[in-house]
Design a protein that fits this description.
By secondary structure, the protein is of the alpha/beta class. Helix content is about 35%, strand content about 15%. Strands 1, 2, 3, 4, 5, 6, 7, 8 and 9 form a nine-stranded parallel sheet that branches.
Length: about 325
């Protein structure tokens, strides 16, 4: 049965660092020189935490394995030897300030996932595609086998997990179907996929793919329709409202989540596309009801897939239905 409500979350978006070992043909997030590189300092992060307003989620994103790109620079900036070590510190601070961490740091090993599991309400990694693409030729972390391996490891660790597809980066419709079936297969094995994001490629200036056309909306709609047919009913399909319009057509096809929006921070991955506000979202999804959720979905709260470290924050915000208390 189709849900009569659509969910979203309120977050603060923390780009831990833009130093990345990958060089995807469509990315503007990655630092292209030492002058462009940054790492969020503790004092900057605390300043964000002190102005979190109504946010419940701390969304941590980062370039992949910056310690391999510039080990001395990363240690000097953070006092830590690895991104995982530093992000764990930030997650602990977020929890102390009443925010539930969700970390998306690129490909991580089983040991790194274990290190972060207890200080995160959920974690994520976009699969993007199972196809080997030209757009990823300079991106060792985008090897499909490595990404599928990590998603499986998260399942073995019972980490509530977000993944997704990036549409329009050179993959075929058959590739999209294979990618969705791979995600579904992993969920059948471990039951840990809480949402799948279907996100359109948007061309960015000063990238290799700046002149590539984004996917047509009808093409994008078809992927959402296919995703709803392939994925288990308990897996939510998310579409980003700052990148897709009209959203209601996607909801009618089975999408039921709009991801996170922030009152303080931009979408650092798509800086040209501002998030709509909560009231605008309510108008967009009417007559569906807009409900706020946490970064961990109700089903996983019910199953107790979270640590003692995050329990008190979940209990502060979650209502009896697992969504945010109204």
């Amino acid at each position: 049965m189709k849900k009569r409500y659509v969910t979203f979350s309120k977050n603060i978006f923390i780009p831990v660092t833009n130093v990345c070992r990958n060089a995807c043909d469509y990315c503007v997030y990655r630092a292209r020189s030492t002058e462009d590189a940054y790492t969020v300092r503790i004092d900057q992060f605390l300043e964000l935490l002190n102005t979190k307003l109504e946010a419940t989620e701390a969304l941590f994103t980062a370039g992949e394995k910056p310690e391999l790109v510039d080990p001395n620079g990363f240690r000097n900036a953070t006092g830590c030897s690895t991104l995982v070590e530093y992000t764990k510190e930030l997650c602990q601070l977020a929890l102390k300030h009443g925010l539930l961490p969700h970390s998306n740091l690129g490909v991580l090993s089983m040991e790194e996932l274990k290190e972060l599991r207890d200080v995160n309400a959920s974690m994520g990694l976009m699969l993007e595609t199972t196809a080997e693409l030209e757009a990823h030729k300079n991106s060792p972390g985008k090897a499909p086998k490595e990404r599928l391996k990590m998603i499986a490891a998260a399942g073995r660790l019972k980490i509530p997990f977000t993944t997704g597809l990036l549409i329009g980066i050179g993959e075929t419709q058959e590739d999209r179907i294979r990618s969705l079936k791979a995600i579904q297969s992993l969920h059948e094995d471990y039951g840990h996929i809480q949402e799948v994001i279907i996100q359109p490629f948007t061309p960015k200036p000063f990238t290799v793919m700046e002149k590539r056309e984004p996917p047509r909306f009808d093409e994008f709609k078809e992927v959402v329709r296919i995703a709803r047919a392939i994925l288990a009913s308990e897996i939510t399909i998310q579409v980003p409202p700052n990148l897709t319009s009209p959203v209601m057509e996607l909801i009618e096809l089975g999408a039921s989540d709009l991801g996170g929006i922030s009152e303080q921070t931009i979408d650092y991955i798509n800086p040209e596309s501002p998030w709509p506000g909560e009231e605008e979202l309510r108008k967009i999804v009417a007559p569906f009801v807009l409900r706020e959720r946490l970064p961990i979905y109700p089903g996983f709260i019910k199953k107790g897939w979270y640590s003692e470290e995050v329990r008190h924050v979940i209990e502060r915000y979650a209502g009896e239905d697992g969504l945010r208390k109204q």
